[in-house]
Amino acid sequence: MSWKEGIIGDNCEVLSSKRIFAKDYVENGIPFYRSKEIIHKAFNQFTKDEVFIRKEKFDSIKEKFGAPQKGDALISSVGNRSGVCYWIKEDYDFYFKDGNLIWFRNFNDKLLSKYLVYFLNSDLGQSKINNVFIGAAQKALTIQGVKKIKLDLPPLPTQKKIASILSAYDDLIENNLKRIKLLEEAAQHIYKEWFVDFKFPNHENTPINPETGLPEGWEMQTIQDVAKTIGGGTPSTKKTEYWESGNIHWFSPTDLSKSSSLVLLDSSKKINDLGLKKSSAKLLPPKTILMSSRATIGLFGLIDNECSTNQGFINIIPNNDNYRYYILFNLMNRKSELEANASGATFKELSKTNFRRMPIINPSEKIVFEFNSFTQGIFESLKNLAQQNQSLKEARDLLLPRLMNRTLEV
């Protein structure tokens, strides 16, 4: 059977949610997703539930109007990251913000929901989405616009084959992400056990100093005592000569928020030597601790290569290499303290001055060395898994357009 052209709105229901107001938000309950959370899920990134609505409210809406379920799809519909489509792979209760997301459900027997998601996320699908955007200052998708998008519909068995081929890559990526999460949790657990609960190796035979309340040989210092701190900068985006053939990683906080691991392999943008020279960006040595210091404060990352960042960072270079992972996990566990030291009316920013003054426990060198040896192995595993996922994504993204434009038959 041949492929036929179809229209999305003829093959499934395209709709939005019922309006939920800010006064309906509660501290715990049913997760309430905006574009941000769904985009993270679509890219297999860590998603923290931040907004909730009451279960009674959700149950009432679900009974009258329905709620997203396994096999449905959602697409981000407003802002710079509009057009990211997500397939709901399991049944669980959540609701979503109208205007932020568009919902696909009740598919007929001519269109597989998973095939639609892969189509919309392909280059071909994205070009179709670009044609129905509205808005100049802030682009957006409308339900009516999305309904009218045309797509090639192969026979349902072919759609299932295409979805199965691409899903195999996604399943491997997801499995690696679970392993990454477990490894990072293991390192966090050891950090807390040793440096918060003071149950480090041989702690039973280490006396506590009555004056400091710390184990003997440990002392309280400040960040500036244990590390150098360096900011970043942005070369003029109007001067293409600063960005052409860029060979220097240049990170923004968005790179960190999009990352599924503490290990960073690449930045979304790169600058060249001239861009570095003509801006306040600095060339940072390998394995510098990158920490976002404005807007979202306390995002972290490590990269094995030289890199630079924009001005939304405080970059931390330990005086002693063995202290790198200790300082990283120490700061990761103090996010609320980092935020409390920030200031600003429009948006909060943590200054280098305030950060340098923050206290930090300096454990004995022997214990830090043992912790470094333990976490070094974990970070090697994290890097390997991140590299595997990068290769899997590249292979999947090469296959996707070829399957959709029929240059690769299935």
From TrEMBL:
Keyword Magnesium tagged: no
Sequence ranges assigned to domain Type I restriction modification DNA specificity in this UniProt record: 3-184, 215-391
Protein's name in the database: Restriction endonuclease subunit S
Molecular function per GO: DNA binding; endonuclease activity
Gene3D superfamilies linked: Bipartite methylase S protein (1.10.287.1120), DNA methylase specificity domains (3.90.220.20)
Domain of life the protein comes from: Bacteria
Keyword annotations of the record: DNA-binding, Endonuclease, Hydrolase, Nuclease, Restriction system
GO BP terms in the entry: DNA restriction-modification system
Organism phylogeny: Bacteria, Pseudomonadati, Bacteroidota, Flavobacteriia, Flavobacteriales
Coiled coil: none
